[in-house]
Amino acid sequence: MTKTSRSRALGANVERLRKGAKISKKTFCLTVGIGRPFLDRIEKGEADPRLSVIESLADALETTPQDLLAPPL
């Protein structure tokens, strides 16, 4: 899996899980400790966040970093 495809998978999974949990972007950003523009870039697959951010995203979505990085189903 290339870096670009990992970023796209991460973005698709974060967006799907966040929306599925009915969490607004604002609330999610406050929970994770990131800014809204950064979340927008993550969900579009344009960002390459550090592992610590991926772990925070996973914690907030009650999943694992591995699941966030897996290709979406």
End-to-end Cα distance: 15 Å
The main β sheet shows up as:
none
Helix content: 55-70%
Approximately how much beta-strand content do the residues carry?
Answer: under 5%
Contiguous low-pLDDT stretches (5 residues minimum) are: none
Topology:
Blueprint (H helix, E strand, L loop, with lengths): L2 H18 L4 H8 L3 H8 L7 H10 L4 H5 L4
Task: Describe the structure in your own words.
It is a single chain. The chain has 73 residues and is an all-alpha fold. 67% of the residues lie in helices and 0% in strands. It has helices at residues 3-20, 25-32, 36-43, 51-60, 65-69. The longest helix is centred in the first third of the chain and has 18 residues, at 3-20. The relative contact order is 0.23. The mean pLDDT is 95.
Quick gist of this model?
This protein is mainly alpha-helical and 73 residues long.
List keywords for this structure.
mainly alpha; 67% helix; 73 residues
